[in-house]
Amino acid sequence: VDDTLSVYNCSEKIWNTVGVSHELQEDVSCIAFRPFCGRTVALGCKNGVCLWEKNYSRFKYAKYVTGRNADSIAWSPDGSLLAIGSSKCSRIVIWKVATNEQTTLPLTSGGTAQLKWSPNGDYLYSSSRSGSRFCVWETMSWTVEYWSEFSGKLHAAAWSPNGKTLAVVACERKEDGESGLDMQLYCVAFANRAPKIQGVITPITLKLNGQAVQTACCGTASQSVKGVKEICWDPTGSRLAVCYDGAPAVVVYAVKPSPYLQFSYHGTVWGPPATLPYGVQFKPNFGKGALLFIPFCHFDEPCTSLVFVPMYFI
To answer: Is 224 left (phi over 0), alpha (psi -120 to 50) or beta?
Structure first.
């Protein structure tokens, strides 16, 4: 991987920008477009974050915030703040891009594994590299609540579109000497608004290592799955995509929000032969449905193909 930035134009179906680089852009681990400003993109790098802004038809290097390696970043829904986490540092940096101000949020142990800002802007989810603990910050006064009720290690998380439900996936080794992992999705409900948190773990769960993962591993051994790499909730709240670590396909679940939250297997998305999905993402606005985007890679090589899956709701 050469640590360069390339941008694909979905409307025109062409690569507008290919191979943008900078001397400080080293060991890129994550990328995030700024909300309401598709011309600005942040890249988490070895020693900080590179910020690029598109000027006419070209991307122009804009800013760089220094610090430890930034391998988890998340924009606030209004695009004013960028949360920066590091696997080697027990703190989260909140960067106000316009004024270059920084606020530091302390963590009790371990580095940051993942950051997720709730769509309503009230909360910031943070999981730890150390295992089964995660926390949620409210974004008005930056108070925090911790959850450690899960027996397995946290692998992925996603907010519902209204910011009222947080789905988290915990994985642990099966008991009785069986091979493979138990992969379970839990839901945490947030009935309040910031500055209150008071999240409650609901009885709603979804087992992710049943028939769905067997289908996603068709032709390969499901024991090779190392967990869940990423989950993503579509903007309508009707679909949830699950990307497994080691499975050659992505599983999509249908979501029924009322009278209570329900998940049901909806389908499986395959890429080209001998490839693995790198992640999953839904397009923010897609008419009367959802558009799922999946980059597929040939094992450890960079992205070799992009798969777009439109889902039209009747």
So the answer is: alpha
